[in-house]
Specification:
The chain is α/β, with parallel strands linked by helices and 274 residues long. It has helices at 27-37, 49-59, 74-88, 111-139, 160-179, 198-204, 208-216, 226-237, 261-269; strands at 10-14, 41-46, 64-68, 93-96, 142-149, 185-192, 248-251. Helix 3 packs parallel to helix 4 (111-139) and helix 4 runs parallel beside helix 5 (160-179). The protein is globular and about 60 Å long. The structure holds nicotinamide-adenine-dinucleotide (NAD).
Length: 274
């Protein structure tokens, strides 16, 4: 097991909040918990300070700090790494997790939603990485992990702005991983499939029938859990991935590899195309 992979390391998790210290079912919260469990000191930022504080409370105050930072604000993003470093020291790892879903397919996509989702899901990650980079380059090492989605690889037809930003984020991650590789910087992305977070339950429903339908989207027959997203992030952020950069690791229970969804769904609910 990877216990201690982050001993002495300082990590910033952007968008690392949770609903409550007894409801930690969010990817960012689980990423922060996992990295702390493996030895890291963690700065957790969120637009909602109370959410960041829930994660910090679950980790323990001596190992984590909470910051308020709005990913839709250029100023907040540019200032965030320095604010985190004031509290925890020079950053070794930045996990860019924050993301919002947007709400429109292409026919009704609004400019306002498009711009907001771009600002939060892509611009924020570029700005935070840009601000963290000089210190990492000076120290000759640093690792970025960007949390994207399989919506950047395949379309659900649900939200154009979300799909466009999640595809774009893969390019942002790849750019940092290539351009600064010779300065000791690695950068990778995780493309998550359906993960059973409170955001998904709130946004897409939580009754048993809807949960079962979400389970069936994956060949593994279930949704992912946020701690499974965190395990992939921890791997890429750690020295175990020391020769991996510019990559996008798909964490989706086999969904994007699958051509048999219709058959599985039909067995459970009847034919999908009557
Ligand atoms: N849950 C899934 O099925 C799934 C699938 C693919 C990708 N993802 C990605 O995982 C990441 C986390 O998603 P989640 O499901 O844990 O959702 P979540 O809503 O629980 O987590 C997002 C966090 O970001 C914070 N946040 C929202 N707007 C912010 C802003 N403007 N500034 C700073 N913080 C802000 C929220 O308060 C929350 O704590 C997102 O990037 C999402 O796109 C999730």
């Amino acid at each position: 097991m990877g216990e201690g992979r982050f001993d002495g390391r300082r990590v910033l998790v952007v968008g690392g909040g949770a609903n409550g210290s007894d409801d930690l079912s969010a990817n960012g919260a689980q990423i922060a918990l996992r990295l702390a469990a493996e030895g890291a000191t963690v700065a957790v930022s969120d637009v909602d300070l109370a959410r960041a504080e829930h994660t910090v409370a679950a980790i323990g105050d001596d190992r984590a700090v909470a910051l308020r930072s709005d990913a839709s604000s250029v100023e907040d993003c540019a200032a965030l790494p320095a604010a985190a470093e004031d509290l925890v020291g020079p950053l070794d790892v930045v996990v860019a997790n924050v993301g919002v879903t947007g709400g429109f397919p292409g026919r009704t996509q609004t400019v306002e939603d498009w711009q907001w989702v771009q600002d939060v899901n892509v611009r924020s990650h570029w700005l935070v990485a840009q601000a963290a980079l000089p210190g990492m380059m000076e120290r000759g090492q640093g690792s970025f992990v960007f949390v994207t989605s399989i919506a950047g690889l395949i379309s659900s037809g649900y939200s154009l702005s979300y799909e466009a930003t999640k595809a774009s984020l893969i390019a942002v991650s790849r750019h940092f991983g290539v351009r600064y590789a010779d300065r000791g910087i690695r950068s990778n992305a995780v493309a998550l499939g359906v993960i059973d977070t409170s955001m998904v339950r709130g946004g897409f429903g939580d009754d048993p029938d809807l949960r079962r339908r979400r389970d069936l989207m994956q060949p593994l027959g279930r949704q992912g859990q946020p701690h499974e997203a965190a395990a992939a992030v921890a791997f890429l952020a750690s020295d175990d991935a020391s020769f991996i950069s510019g990559q996008c690791l798909v964490v989706d229970g086999g969904r994007t590899a699958d051509g048999r969804y219709d058959a599985r769904y039909a067995r459970a609910f009847g034919p999908t195309h009557e």
